[in-house]
Design a protein that fits this description.
By secondary structure, the protein is α/β, with parallel strands linked by helices. Helices cover about 35% and strands about 25% of the residues. The protein is built from 10 helices and 16 strands. The chain has an 8-stranded mixed sheet with strand order 1-2-4-3-5-16-6-15, sandwiched between helices. It starts with a helix and ends with a helix. The structure holds zinc ion (2 copies). One zinc ion binds near residues 98, 133 and 352.
């Protein structure tokens, strides 16, 4: 366990990270700070620039054994902080509203503990991944040729979660976070003078149909799992009374419990767009963005987390169903046995992505203790 004296620098690190947040894919300074600090711990390998600005430190033993990866995220959000405490964000319009500053401090604190008590078998990787918020970072890390040199057998991550008792461990096996993806539909017809709309092709009725049909579309997919289609944005034409519109944009978030469910939902949504566009004589284009795989927890890893939580005097809450929100850790846990757990951030704390949210420093030491127990289970 870390003493209070050792803990202060980790709280200071968290505050420093909070002061200088960077957006997804732009985490250059955050990554170089973490790389510099990890280097001081003299890992056997330090890999930078993985999947973008990702950083990974590896500690090896001289003996065969599994490779275990622990993950933190480097990125912050495009949200203006409304807090006025001394460590408030100094980067205008950007702040750590998902607690990734706290996750980084936990994984760095874990690296410190590991550097003092190196693995007796196998190896351990501390990964600081970029661009979690856009769903691109973990996939880019896994696709990076450097990742094949890391090849973990097991992977673990936590995400803090306000609305639950401080330091409660929430876990389940199977799907932990749903898959999701953004669908951008562009419809195009032909403008006309507003006095002669019959000479043009307006997307208005097609857009009205999509707005009506999409909320219920998921229920028409024949698969027994949570499937959702949430309309998030719709726009049409110009703010001009003289012109009947030609173009419309329609955006929907698709969500599913499994990746197979997502495939079916994508097919159903695409089919609907195709049909509506044809019925109203419109051209269409469909774009996809913010693609998150389902994050699937392995039973053995979930049991390891529950054991680690028990060994470190944490309360465990077994979740009856998956969280609807997405996490790109699914891309990493698809490449190795893994488990992600949610870590209670206090019932009264503002929700993540709220402008007044701040990571609770009390979770740093206790979060490290859970991961260190997992490290001991596998490698000591
Ligand atoms: Zn997050
Ligand atoms: Zn987030």
């Amino acid at each position: 366990m870390t003493s209070a004296d050792n803990l202060k620098p980790l709280v200071d690190l968290r505050h420093r990270l909070h002061e200088y947040p960077e957006l997804s894919g732009q985490e250059k300074k955050t990554a170089s700070l973490m790389a510099k600090k990890l280097k001081e711990l003299v890992p056997d390998e330090l890999i930078t620039g993985i999947g973008g600005y990702g950083v990974a430190a590896r500690f090896n033993s001289a003996n065969p054994g599994p490779c275990v990866l622990f993950r933190a995220e480097l990125d912050a959000l495009p949200i203006e902080e409304i807090n006025d405490f001394p460590h408030r964000s100094k980067n205008s319009g950007i702040s750590h509203k998902c607690g990734h500053d706290g996750h980084m401090s936990i994984i760095y604190g874990l690296a410190q503990m590991i550097s003092n008590e190196r693995p007796k078998q196998g190896s351990v990787i501390l990964l600081f991944q970029p661009a979690e918020e856009t769903g691109e970072g973990a996939r880019a890390v896994v696709a990076d040729p450097k990742y094949s040199m890391l090849k973990p057998d097991y992977c673990y991550a936590l995400h803090n979660l306000p609305g639950h008792p401080l330091a409660e461990v929430l876990i389940r096996s199977g799907t932990f976070n749903c898959a999701s993806r953004g669908m951008i539909v562009n419809l195009s017809g032909k403008t006309a003078h507003a006095a002669y709309p019959e000479t043009g092709v307006s997307p208005a009725l097609a857009l009205a149909e999509l707005l009506q049909v999409f909320p219920g579309l998921a229920s028409t997919v024949n698969k027994n799992e949570l499937l959702m289609t949430t309309t998030v944005h719709a726009t049409m034409g110009e703010r001009a009374f003289g012109t009947a519109p030609a173009d419309a944009e329609f955006m929907v978030t698709l969500r599913s419990e499994t990746n197979e469910g997502m495939d079916l939902l994508v097919a159903k949504a695409t089919e609907q767009i195709k049909k509506t566009a044809a019925d109203y004589g419109l051209k269409y284009e469909i774009g996809w963005t913010d693609i998150f795989d389902a994050s699937i927890n392995d039973l053995e890893c979930v049991e390891n987390v529950a054991r680690a939580a028990k060994n470190t005097a944490h309360t465990v809450c077994w979740l009856p169903e998956a969280f609807r929100w997405s996490e790109d850790f699914g891309a990493i846990s698809a490449s190795a046995k893994g488990a992600m757990f949610a870590y209670g951030a206090g019932e009264q704390r503002p929700q993540i992505h709220n402008p007044d949210y701040d990571f609770p420093d009390d979770l740093i030491n206790s979060g490290m203790s859970i991961f260190f127990d997992l490290y001991k289970q596998h490698l000591l």
